[in-house]
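Example record

One chain of 298 residues, shown exactly as stored in the release files.
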Amino acid sequence: MGPHEALILGGLTGTGTTATSVDVVNLATGTALPVGSLAFPTHDAGATALGRHALVFGGGQSASLATVQAFPLSAATARGANRAPSVSQVVGKLPELRSDDEAVTIGRTAYVIGGYDGGAPDPAVLATSNGRTFTTVAPLAVPVRYAAVATLGNLIYVFGGQAVTGPLAGQAVDDIQVVDPARHTVTIVGHLSQAVEAAAAFDLGGHLYIAGGDTAPGIPLPTTVTGTPTAKTATGAVSVATVWQFDPQTTATTVVGQLPVAVSNAGVAVSGTSAWLIGGETNGIVVADIQRVSLGNG
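Predicted C-alpha cells for this chain:
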C-alpha cells in the first residue's frame, strides 16, 4: 500500500449489515478500491498487521465470534484488472468468543486487548505470533470493551472503554491502564479527564493521543468547534470531538484540539506525522468521514 492508504477489513455498514468486504482506502481522496473479502463477515473486531498478513481477531455478527482470519497484505498492493480478489483464511480461534476487542503489534507479536463474549467481559490480554496459539500476558485491571489502545515503546496503553459488569456496567470509564508484556503486568496509571468509550488512540512522533469517543450519559459534554453543545441522541450514544495528548511521565491528559466531526468507533491509520480517523459513528449514526490529525504542519 502507499503511504496514505489504509486497509479496511469488514465493519458495520450504514444499513446495519456486517460487511465481508476488504478495501484499500485512499486517505487523501476517500476513494475505496475493493481488494478482497473476509471468509466470515465481522464487525467490532480487533485487527493488526503481523508479518505478511493482517489478522482479524473475533468480532461479531449477530453474536460474538472466536474466529481468527488472516488477509494477505500483498493483496492490497496487487492492482489491475487481471488481479484476482483475495479471501481471508481462517488460521485459528481465540480461546473464547470475543468481540469489541482491540489488537496491536509489538515486534513479532500481536496482542488482543479487551472485549466480551456477548455477556461477560474477557479481561485476558492475549499474545500470539501466528494467530493460532495464544498465551495470556495478564488480566486487565479494569475489564472493558470498546477501549482505545495504542503502543509506545514496548508498552500497551489502554484508554477508557465501556464497563461490562459492576456499578458502571454499560457506561464509559476513565481508567488509563498500561500493559507491560515483558513483566506480565497491567497497572492503572491514571485517569482521563473525561470518561470515554470507543475512542481512537495513536502514536504520533513518540507522543500518544486519544481522539473522539462516546461519553457516559450525565457527564458534562464539551462543545463542538462552533460552540454548540454536543447532542445526545435517543440511542444514548454521545459522541465527542476532543483530541487529548497523554503524557506517560505525568499520566496527565491535555486537550490539544478538536475533530471537525465528533466520532466514535472510527478506524485509525498512521503515516508519518498524521493520523487518519476513518468512518465510525456520530451519536450512534454510521458516518463515512475521513478526518486527519496532524503534528504541526505535517
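Notes: The chain has two domains: 1-139, 144-298.
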